[in-house]
Design brief:
The chain is α+β, with helices and mostly antiparallel strands. It has one domain (9-194): Aminopeptidase (3-Layer(aba) Sandwich), CATH 3.40.630.30. The chain is 30% helix and 31% strand. It is built from five helices and eight strands, in the order ββααβββαβαββα. The protein has helices at 24-31, 50-62, 110-126, 141-150, 182-194; strands at residues 9-10, 14-18, 66-73, 79-89, 94-102, 131-137, 153-163, 169-178. An eight-stranded mixed beta sheet has the order 1-2-3-4-5-6-8-7, with helices on both faces. α3 packs antiparallel against α5 (182-194). The longest helix is centred in the middle third of the chain and has 17 residues, at 110-126.
Length: 204
């Protein structure tokens, strides 16, 4: 039995379900909301490449390296995006939360805050992780700000870490939350979620 097994995580605003090939049409539609694949500093699949990306993530799941999720809006059942546990290190009880994207209309809402709360709760309280990591491009200012708002701390910067579009080299910011920091982060996330309505209108 693997350390991490597929699981459904249920929140007030979102449901994280294990990624499945049957989700590919809805994910292809979701990624067109904002044409997210045009962001040069990150890796987001085009509608045409969505099925291949799903298959890539599921192959990594079979290897024990990733546990990918599809993010659904709880009220409407609409697909909002994807996220994953990745770079799983079972021996040292560490993992990364990443490969995340949401349709543009779901951004700046309760979606990301609650999705991260669900993932972090599972990582620290069920999997007993020592640390959870986050990585993002130096140019992804929105993502860096969101990670910092969670309460994650910057571990360092990996210079010329990855090749992105047009052979540009990406610097990667590496953040983490430690097990000892989780109680404060959990309280912070709960406080932030109180700022959102208890029942939100369906995302257009």
């Amino acid at each position: 039995m693997q350390w991490i097994e597929p699981v459904t995580l249920l929140g007030q605003h979102v449901i994280l379900k294990p990624l499945d090939e049957s989700h590919h049409l809805e994910l292809s539609e979701a990624v067109q909301d904002g044409e997210l694949w045009k962001l040069w500093f990150t890796f987001i699949p085009t509608p045409a490449n969505m099925l291949a990306e799903i298959q890539r993530r599921l192959a990594l799941q079979q290897q024990g390296q990733m546990l990918p999720f599809t993010v659904f809006e709880r009220q409407s059942g609409k697909v909002l995006g994807m996220t994953s546990f990745m770079n799983i290190d079972a021996a040292h009880h560490r993992l990364e939360i990443g490969s995340t994207w949401y349709r543009q209309s779901a951004q700046r809402s309760a979606v990301n805050t609650e999705a991260k709360q669900l993932l972090l709760s599972h990582a620290f309280e069920v999997l007993n992780c020592i640390a959870v990591e986050f990585r993002t491009s130096s140019f992804n200012f929105k993502s860096r700000a969101a990670i910092e708002r969670l309460g994650a701390k910057l571990d360092g910067i990996l210079r010329s870490h990855q090749i992105v579009k047009d052979d540009i080299l990406r610097d990667t910011y590496v953040y983490s939350i430690l097990r000892s920091e989780w109680p404060a982060v959990r309280q912070n996330l709960a406080f932030k979620l109180q700022m959102f309505p208890s029942s939100v209108e369906s995302i257009s």
